[in-house]
Amino acid sequence: MNQELRLLEEILKRNSEDPDSIDIENEVDHYFFFDGIKNEEDLDEAWRVFDEHEEIRNRLLNIVSETDSISRWGYRIPKSEQIRCDDQELKNLVSLHISSLRPILLEEDYNAEIIAFIDSGFQVEIAPSGIEFPDTSDNELFGVLYEAIGEYWIDNFPYDREHYEVLKNWAIYLTKCDEVATYLMWPFLSNEKDLAPCTMDAGAKLWKLGCRDRFWVKDLDYVSKIVYVRPPWLDE
User: Fold this and answer.
1) If pLDDT is split at 50, 70 and 90, which confidence band does 171 have?
2) Residue 137 and residue 11: Cα distance in Å, rounded?
């Protein structure tokens, strides 16, 4: 256990009603880690063990605003019924999200059609009423982007700094959304591909709008050169 991890354990124990139950090497104690620290000075001290804490906390404020916490479970969900945008902004967000993740897509044969679809140019349209969005298992565009995010984590996570495991697990369980977790942790993920600081911004915004997985290639046919998106407020 490194010095930083030991400090995080001490801080969590100071703020726990059952300090003997705390074991910072147990992943369970990473979930909602910062929610368990009620003392503001302790909270600031815990954040400071992470070099990128200021930027991550700024991003956190952007996420937790306009969200609800699930009672007894603690993770956050967006207030989708209150957060909306106009059609053009939504289409721009979907386009930006896809384009921003293009540099990290795996250059594998099974991704060739998706990569060609993106590289040849596409338009985003609001799906007409009456058209249902496909199951996630059939939505190859979403699946390829999701896989790329996961692989990027694996390849770029700072495994040599073991206290960052706490940060990773906390970020994942905060919303149970990999796009949001990656958005939060982007400041410390190594940037070998010269990716922009805003790479995950559109993906996080789509989650807040309830549109994280509600975009797909029209008719699941790449020849269409169209990506459909259907926001939840049009289901009403």
Assistant:
1) very high
2) 42
Furthest CA-CA distance within the chain: 60
pLDDT in tens, 89-118: 999 999 999 999 999 998 889 899 999 999
pLDDT tier at 132, thresholds 50, 70, 90 = confident
Q: Does residue 2 have a pLDDT over 80?
A: yes
Tokens of 103: 């540099």
Q: How far is CA 221 from CA 33, 115, 122, 212, 218, in A?
A: 44, 13, 12, 20, 6
Mapping DSSP onto H, E and C, the string for the chain reads CCHHHHHHHHHHHHCCCCHHHCCCCCHHHHCCCHHHCCCHHHHHHHHHCCCCHHHHHHHHHHHHCCEEECCCCCCEEECCCCCCCCHHHHHHHHHHHHHHHHHHCCCCHHHHHHHHHHHCCCEEEECCCCCCCCCHHHCHHHHHHHHHHHHHHHHHCCCCCCCHHHHHHHHHHHHCCHHHHHHHHHHHCCCCCCCCCCCCHHHHHHHHCCCCCCEEEHHHCHHHCEEEECCHHHHC
